[in-house]
Amino acid sequence: MTEANVSWSLTTLIWLFGRNGDYGGFGVASSWFDLVLRLVHGVGSCLWFGFELEFLWDSVVSLEFVEFHFELGFDLCCVACGVLLEVVRRSSIREELVGAWLGSSSFLVRLSSCSWSKVGSLVSSEVGVRRWAARGVLARACLETDYRLRIHVSDANHSRWEIPQSLLHRPALSSLAFPTTITTTTTLNLTLSHPTSLLSFTLHTTTPFSFSVSRPSSPTPLLSTPLTHPLLFKPQLIRLSSSLPSSASLFGLGEHTKPTFKLQFPQTLTLWNSDIASSNVDLNLYGSHPFYLDVREDGEAHGVVWVNSNGMDVIYEGDTVTWRVIGGVVDLYVFAGPTAEDVVGQYTEQVGRPAPMPYWSFGFHQCRYGYHDVYELESVVAGYAKAKIPLDVMWTDIDYTDAYKDFTLDPVHFPVDKMQPFVETLHKNGQRCVVILDPGISVNNTYGTFVRGMKADIFIKRYGVPYLGVVWPGPVYFPDFVNPATANFWADEIIRFRKLLPVDGLWIDMNEISNFNTSEPTPHSTLDDPPYKINNSGVHRPINNKTVPATAVHYGNISEYNAHNLYGYLEARATHAALIRATGERPFVLSRSTFIGSGKYTAHWTGDNSATWDDLAYSIPAILNFGLFGIPMVGADICGFNGNTTEELCRRWIQLGAFYPFARNHASVGTLPHELYRWESVAASSRKVLGLRYRLLPYFYTLMLEAHSTGLPIARPLFFSFPKEAKTYRIDSQFLLGRGVMVSPVIQQGATSVNVYFPAGN
After folding, report:
1. 393, 402, 432, 459: which sits with the fewest CB atoms below 10 Å from its CB?
2. Do residues 137 and 231 make contact, with C-beta atoms less than 8 angstroms apart?
3. Helix/strand/coil for 738
4. Over the stretch 673-728, which tens digit does the pLDDT of each residue have?
5. Does the N-terminal peptide bond of residue 415 adopt cis geometry, omega within 30 degrees of 0?
6. Tell me: the pLDDT tens digits for 118-153?
7. Number of C-beta neighbours around residue 753 at 10 A
8. Residues 331, 512, 560, 675: which is the catalytic one?
9. Pick the catalytic residue: 126, 406, 608, 675?
10. How far apart are CA 754 and CA 747, in angstroms?
């Protein structure tokens, strides 16, 4: 039972009933209504009456048909954006008339003039957007298209953090492709549907309230909140659960390194962007993607994304999936599919189609952290040419910079007068150059980028001053990419640097944000020390550990607590725009940290893996997951980043890596060099598999066009093309390139053969 005090202007009330004898669109005149209206009008159009609103579950006739007890002795009922008075409930209103109120736009403005001191039950706002409220929680369900449903739950009395449209665009809640209808059942459940919709939403009249999303063609829910796990909605914790049938196979919810593509249970998947090496299994890594694909045994699929940038744990127990989110609101989208390909297309339509990548980026790339000088770069390029192994792009890690400062060149080892002719030679040979940028700007009054950043006032702040972190250059400030001015600052710095060295692409790293220091929490702050501890790093590590503290503040007084997971996404967006401005060409950006919609701006690699056979195998689920997330240009560091690789491992890795959408060899400082020409057996395999890749470049590029146009990934799981074959749901060692090429690599040490599953086909 929920109560609320409500005041209505009788003038407004009369207007809502209709004008010129039309009672709100019913087209039916009632003598009771005539009498009531005359009585009310006689009292005086300027009087206000207060009455108690009491919500009774057994009085609900439709999703927005709520009984109000009025002090004058008659009932006030709210039906789909209209208000009418009835003397005898259920006798003067018939259920079949409920639909007549839908689409009555004349009621929209007037209903908003109703002043609610406390929201307590089902109410209506926009035409076609159904909303209900209970215990101070306001929720709305909206069929935005025939295949996309949005469920939005917020605080009815207080504003809460939501990702602003300026940061992550999505359709406004009230924008609809078609009007919807509401029906009731004998159990008084309330269903939102449309004849052409692939989804229907049902509000169950239970205590506590629950809801479900289903296909009209099937009684099995796609999303269903169980009564045993009711919604919990607190200032710094939202808990929402959904029941799952035994036939559900879940994929997604990243970024984590997993031995399998299909999610196993029980497990907790934590989303909090962290600088944790991807060689660590089952820990929260660099990006946050609260999206999963659910494939049922009949091959039908649907998707669910929770658009929320706060830290969260997603607990998957087989028969339930439970979100525990430490802030924001519930903003769920359900995508109907019904195929897995359809789901990814619908998801990327919502969050942004993948950026089209330049043709050259599909060539082979070489990098290493620890190249000593420009002469070693020249030697590596020459080594590939001598071995007749194709090389399209040469990279440099932070070694090229002056004391690790962005937009600088080391005057001793990578001087400008040597680097310029090196890049010029690459360009003459049809090759490209990509360099790294980290977000931390060295605090140094002789450093032009720092001076200009301070003048523009674009750094993240804490306690009213720029927050001081520590990364490779030492003390640094971090640009605030929430601030619109930062994009201009960043673009200007990139343009200045490209005049010095005309690089072709940019690699943005350390943007979780990574910080070598852990700042002390603000005393008594529930931002730095929230009441619910997400399973950060698998040990409930404080969220401030090795990053910018949650009490730091972005532009617009947005806390790092809320914006943390957005940083890499926003930096990628700014870098993408800067390269377009600087070159006028299709940009290439590679980002370590990602979020919902990052694929619109950037490619991704799976981070700091290790030179192990396990890491080789883990790379397949990783690239398949990022295809689901709308980032199809993805790959892992070939031959392994950390640790010393072996000849056999490197040979097997290039045999797989040649078919990653993004193919780059990369190694860490202090490890043995593993360029592909270092062993003759690896060089021979490289010539063969990269030769095949280069013959397939038109095919890769066509798949990139398809990804940009439809959202479909380049590397795909087998069940995308063979959804009826349930065995394909568990295959982690094979994948498809588009629909025409199947890759089945050797990923076990010492193996000379491989077991391959061939789907039945047509």
Report:
1. 402
2. yes
3. coil
4. 999 999 999 999 999 999 999 999 999 999 999 999 999 999 999 999 999 999 99
5. no
6. 222 333 333 234 455 555 788 899 999 999 999 999
7. 7
8. 512
9. 608
10. 9
SS3 340: helix
Residue 385 tokens, joined = 């040419």
Q: How far, CA to CA in Å, does 558 sit from each of 167, 554, 762?
A: 12, 5, 54
Mean pLDDT of the chain: 84
- Side-chain half-sphere of 531: how many Cα atoms within 13 Å? 6
In the residue annotation, 509 being an active-site residue is answered as yes
Residue carrying the six token digits 């690789």: 645
493 is catalytic: no
For 171, the token pair is 């359709």
Cα(first)–Cα(last) distance of the chain, in Å? Answer: 58
Strand partners, 133: 138
Burial (CB < 10 A; 0-12, 13-18, 19+), residue 545, is middle
Cα 711 from Cα 345, distance rounded (Å): 5
Sheet holding 312-316, edge to edge: 232-234, 237-243, 320-325, 312-316, 267-271
Whether the bond into 255 is cis, omega within 30 of 0:
yes
Distances (CA, A) of 70 to 78, 381, 720: 12, 84, 57
Question: What are the CA-CA distances from residue 622 to residues 285, 635, 650 (Å)?
Answer: 12, 8, 19
Among residues 493, 509, 528, 637, the one annotated as catalytic is 509
What is the residue-wise DSSP string for 143-193? E-SSSEEEEEEEESSS------TTTS----TT--SS--EEEE-TT--EEEE
Q: Are the beta carbons of 57 and 66 closer than 8 angstroms? A: no
